[in-house]
Specification:
The chain is about 40% helix and about 10% strand. The protein contains 5 helices and 3 strands, in the order H-H-H-H-E-E-E-H. Strand 2 and strand 3 form a beta hairpin. About 5% of the residues are buried.
Length: about 100
């Protein structure tokens, strides 16, 4: 049918249709109570990762690529070297310093 359309035999191919997309909806956020319960039972390493995710707003992939040297408690910064948007440095939130 595409060729027939290209050659002018039909004005528009009746079989060419666009798939309908589901509208993107934001995900549900944890309530304060749910978040506290999750942090209370999480493994210490996972807890640190969850707190970092909450206070940095970084993508999962950026958080998984962090290395110990990327966190500088003396300067109070965390550096994302392999981020999707390029490398960047942000200040450490006090909750992250506590972890």
């Amino acid at each position: 049918m595409r060729t027939a359309e290209e050659w002018g035999y039909v004005p528009r191919s009746p079989v060419r249709v666009r798939a309908a997309r589901e509208p993107r909806t934001p995900g549900r956020r944890f309530t304060v109570e749910e978040r506290e319960r999750l942090l209370a039972v999480a493994d210490p390493k996972l807890r640190a990762w969850l707190v970092a995710a909450r206070y940095t707003g970084a993508r999962r992939s950026s958080l998984w690529r962090l290395r110990v040297g990327d966190i500088d408690p003396t300067l109070g910064t965390i550096t994302f070297r392999q981020a999707k948007v390029g490398g960047y440095t942000i200040p450490l939130h006090p909750a992250l310093v506590a972890e």
